[in-house]
Amino acid sequence: MKPIVILAHVPSEPVTRGFVPAARRLGFPVVLLTDRLEEQQETFSRVPAAEAPGSILACDVFNPLSVLEATLRLGGRPAALFSNSDHLQTSTALAASYHGLPGKDWTAALRAKNKAEMRRWLAERGVERVWHAAVADEQGLRELEGPVPLPCVVKPAEGVASEQVQLARTHEEVAASCRDIWRVRPGQRVVLEEYLEGPLVTLETLGDGERLQVLGGFRTHLSPPPYFIEKEAWWGTGLTARQEEEMVAVLRAAGVGFGACHTEFVLTASGPRVIEINYRTIGDSREFLLDEALGLRLFEQVLRLHLGAPLEPGRPPEVAAGIRYFCAERPGVLTRVPAAFRRVEDGLTLMFTPTRTEGAQVRLTNSNRDYLGVLRGFGGTQAALERAFARAGEELRWELK
User: Fold this and answer.
1) Hey, how many other C-beta atoms are within 10 angstroms of the C-beta on 289?
2) How many other CB atoms are found less than 10 A from the CB of residue 51?
3) In the prediction, which pLDDT does 161 show?
4) Phi then psi for 43, rounded to 5 degrees?
């Protein structure tokens, strides 16, 4: 049987606990292509053989030509080509296209990854007009046409996990934020864009190339500015039909229509405005919450689309589900970490997972990378879940020195 080939960069739970076991449950052998061979081998050595890839091969997964060469060495056309990595959607889409496999439009994948290109593309088509500019150095900053609107969001054009994203309230802060990014990533294009004020919601979609199905979305609560750390999220957007239609129109204009997509919008006074399009499943443990709380079989559904199956009709039922993230507040070495647990009580299911182990060095990044643990829950009502979260949170203690 031809394998499902999965492209991966660094080890991640959606791959190790989600997509690889799902592929095996579907009855397919799995080949993992990665540029982090030893890390992936070490990670999967701790996984039951029935849930691990049949083989893990070294490959420059960022280069579609290398991906093609690797698949040809495997015997040609695989059953499916797939990646859940933000960084690898374009190379995966190009390789899938060569083999005639179901996949994403590589141009849409590229636009989704590059925040500056996404803004330009949508503006040219009159879909959304959000002030933005892209600069790569000090000279670019000086040559900007017209004043930068304040406050202004500064972020890497191809960043992830809210890393180095800041709100700047003065022109001096804009310049300082750009320099912070260039110190870490010299030459990185930096996107400056007007600050969109309003509630943050997500839209989770699946598509088979013809139909695009909205699964629902989260209302997300962020840390206070100047940073944008996601602190908790609750399933259910509360959107009107018109607002949802406007969001879907943005995705269609961006070329989104196949596989999983996780999109963030701000509900501004003048309507929904996109923050970013992540052409993959939602992350930060929310994919596992959806898989269980909504009974979606999310990982299998996504892989079936890449195998050529049509979209499963119907929208999942509305349920109460939420997630809360516990963040480090200062750097140090962890000397105490609360234990993982799963509880079912009064019709509510609660799950806590620590994301760091004792002895781990904590360095603050002011991003989602600062998470120490994740509390998930579903069932009952949101009010009941919030009370259960509050009780559980009182038990969770970390110590650093």
Assistant:
1) 23
2) 16
3) 66
4) -65, -50
